[in-house]
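Model: Ready when you are.
Researcher: Fold this.
Model:
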Amino acid sequence: MVNAFWLDRDLAQTARWLVDDHVLSSVFENAMVLTTAVQLAGYPESEDLYYTHADHPLTRWAADHPENWGLLRAYTEEAHDEWRYRWDHPPEKTHGSWATVESLDEEVLAGLDWPGEPSDPPQVTGEWTADDYVDAYRLYYANEKRHLFEWSRDRSPPPWLDEYRRGSK
């Protein structure tokens, strides 16, 4: 399943708080979402672009409006920067999935037919919902993703984890 874990409105902070597994998956999965979303908005199909999860809530949200797409792109770029940092990749190293997003033609993107309005990211958080999408993702992370809790290099767990934990899950 694809997802973006909106753990803070500051996307650089969000990337720092992602568990190691989600740093990499955020780059890979959201590159797929981004390229699928632009194709749904009219970007020319290409075998060089990913096309998958077209009906997923995150993909549909990203395809609705360029602001939505831009926010997910910024999230993915921060995750890519964090991928470089955590695994000590040099600045010139680019993950192949991110390179695919960077290969998109800006002029073509600007001319796409985005059908919707800007909106908050969807809460792809199962039973963990809240009025605010950041709160929903913090609840989801603290309760459903504990088994993945590992942060490399000098990254540490988010300070809000205990506040958002519920029960003994």
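Researcher: Now this one.
Model:
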Amino acid sequence: MSSRRTYHHGDLRQAVLTAALDVIATEGPSALSLRDLARRAGVSHAAPAHHFKDRAGLLTAVATEGFDLLAQALGEAKDLKDAGVRYVRFATEHPAHFQVMFQPDLHRPDDPELLAAKERAGDRLRAGVAGVSADGRGPDPRLAGVAAWSLAHGFATLLLSHNLAGPVGDRDPEEVFRTLAGLLFAAGGPQAPGE
């Protein structure tokens, strides 16, 4: 991570990131303005540019932080199904990060810190998939990874965009996801470890 300076009111970099996450969660990434974030943090309009240079730099930092948080969440998974549940949990607990992470037109997709964070998260997902096809008879690990990611990401995206209000209702989304993953595995798909 880059070095962070602390200002008289605290850590300006983190204050701007926190304010940005609030704006993204309530108004979407298009509402972000460094000038507005500086006003919210009570600093000059040039202060956020010191840390992020511009809006794309700020959104790159948001995406990088998001992938680091996702890698941490996936690293604690006990099997592939649990990794999917943790993915959905991450999305619901960090919706602003989730909105930015998968929109490369918002940030700098070639940023070295972002690429490293994405690789860490990808490694965690691949580790979960490796257990599914460890015997050599299972599906191609890359395709199994795409399938697992598609199920978890699709469910999380539909959940966050309120497209699952009817089917999910007031049930716990994590339990609904576990049921969906079980249906997929029971329908002849790959068996998750321990099933």
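Researcher: Key takeaway?
Model: Residues 92 and 136 are 34 Å apart (CA to CA).
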